[in-house]
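dumping this here so i dont lose it
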């Protein structure tokens, strides 16, 4: 009787573990981002942007900027708790999103909206076309402007840095047109569904 109960308990526990693991590896809904030829100067600039080993710690010019950051983190922390229950994990994630977004000249809320749509905040999300991690980076980017180690795209900081640098590149390519830049990021340039989804999510993460 006790042995039977143990087997039932062990089976149930294994199911919970499997479900948790599956949630991390379930496919994401990223589009087929296109690999485009890059001018040598652009490739060099992008490689430098993703390769700089600066720590992901926000730097503030004055107390006002620090207060804006603190308010954003406080508001975002509450919204993110269901996706990332551990407080320290949430704080590290939000610090890194803020740092990498600001470093690339992006609104952190926009980056959060893009992550929500692309991966649902799943670190190990993989799309049907092979895009990886929070911001669904295609492996060709690692080979093109990184060190070629595609497994590093599952690392939080690496993934967020690539994603922010790539989105900044697309914004520059599209002369600041966010609608077209988001479409290019998703591989659906000119179609409204993806940009509309990201901008709707962005509103939820704005301060």
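and the seq i came up w/
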């Amino acid at each position: 009787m006790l042995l039977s109960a143990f087997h039932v308990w062990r089976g149930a526990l294994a199911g919970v573990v499997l479900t948790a693991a599956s949630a991390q590896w379930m496919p994401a809904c990223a589009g087929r981002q296109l690999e485009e030829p890059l001018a040598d100067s652009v490739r060099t600039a992008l490689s430098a942007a993703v390769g700089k080993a600066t720590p992901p710690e926000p730097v503030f010019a004055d107390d006002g900027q620090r207060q804006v950051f603190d308010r954003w983190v406080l508001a975002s922390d509450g919204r993110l708790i269901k996706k990332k229950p551990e407080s320290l994990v949430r704080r590290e994630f939000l610090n890194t999103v803020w740092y990498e977004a600001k470093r690339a000249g992006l609104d952190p809320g926009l980056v959060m909206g893009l992550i929500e749509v692309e991966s649902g905040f799943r670190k190990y999300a993989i799309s049907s076309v092979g895009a990886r991690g929070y911001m669904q980076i295609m492996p060709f980017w690692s080979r093109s402007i990184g060190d070629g180690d595609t497994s590093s795209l599952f690392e939080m900081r690496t993934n967020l840095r690539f994603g922010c640098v790539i989105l900044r590149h697309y914004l520059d390519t599209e002369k600041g047109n966010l609608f077209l830049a988001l479409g290019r990021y998703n591989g659906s340039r000119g179609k409204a569904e993806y940009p509309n989804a990201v901008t709707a999510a962005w509103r939820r993460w704005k301060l």
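The domain at 27-205 is CATH 1.10.530 (Lysozyme).
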